[in-house]
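so im writing up the methods section and need the non-specific serine/threonine protein kinase record in one place, dumping it here so i stop losing it
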Amino acid sequence: MGNCLNSSAKVENSQSVQNTYATSKVTSKTSLSSATSTLTVASHSQKSTTESLPTPRSEGEILSSPNLKAFSFTELKNATRNFRPDSLLGEGGFGYVYKGWIDEQTLAAARPGSGMVVAVKKLKPEGFQGHKEWLTEVNYLGQLHHPNLVKLIGYCLEGENRLLVYEFMPKGSLENHLFRRGAQPLSWAIRIKVAISAARGLSFLHDAESQVIYRDFKASNILLDAEFNAKLSDFGLAKAGPTGDRTHVSTQVMGTHGYAAPEYVATGRLSAKSDVYSFGVVLLELLTGRRAVDKSKSGVEQNLVDWAKPYLGDKRKLFRIMDTKLEGQYPQKGAYTAATLASQCLSTEAKVRPRMSVVLATLEQLQTPHNTNKNSRPVQQTVSNSVRRSPLRHHHSPMNLTPSASPLPSHR
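--- predicted struct ---
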């Protein structure tokens, strides 16, 4: 599987983007490692809905979704002020994301500053692979609706032009809040809120009538609304889950180094538990304030999982890896519960990782009033004990993923 992605593939962070939107650039001669979408939002509290996702669906069936508006290229030029540079929100390997305005009722292009703010993703002409991922995103987000999935409003397919129109996400990506220089540190309560809402999105996908494996769960694909509710974006790599008595689907290895599950990297066998591993990595990023892969560090510290795992099961040592920007303002037992949960998600054996519904339930216990207070020992002790009793507790030894051995590009 090592040849599935070109070893020279790189994922760089786009540092030049103004405001909170940044996207990852991806270059590869073979498979794309999913450029991170940094789009979109206004908070929608619609009920979670999903129709059965019959496969395969033809391109015509996908694009005729009654939930999506087919925009003309001229309409989107007008909505974004002709894609002017001062409307640019972010740039990635897929192309550019622009801020635009549309009428809330008619969805027609509106005067800048009036109507509803949207994010318009304009793809570069990438050939078949780019179009395939664009169509995959339209397919899934055209049918799946949940408060923790970014809302796709419409698309444009006109000649070589392929664009997507999303709700606008005012707080940008989790990646920016955790790692961008000068960003305000996120409090413990906000980090848990983000983890919970992202877990709700993943859990919804995994428990849908026809299971969806997200395949690219990472900090740059988690977008935040004005209240720091997380929504999953960029469904270009999403895959239908196994059916019948199958435990996995076999597919080409695609994703982002540092976040991808070791068994998927090694064999191409993809399951919902692959997403659970990726969630564990992001949970570690929330706890430590460190990137999944950081080439500016040396030795074992370059890979977050390798560096952090010896500390996750030790209450007395856990503080050594906690984000210093928290300045100690977090409940120690709550942090230990989250660290234990991350350890379970990062188990080398996919089958012993918890389901996302279990992950979500554990995280939600951390948000109870008692658990937001550092001194609330009795309730937090109960939560810790419930995690400790789990049969998964001993499995916190993820496979070492060295950048040179992995077919996935490094994160930066």
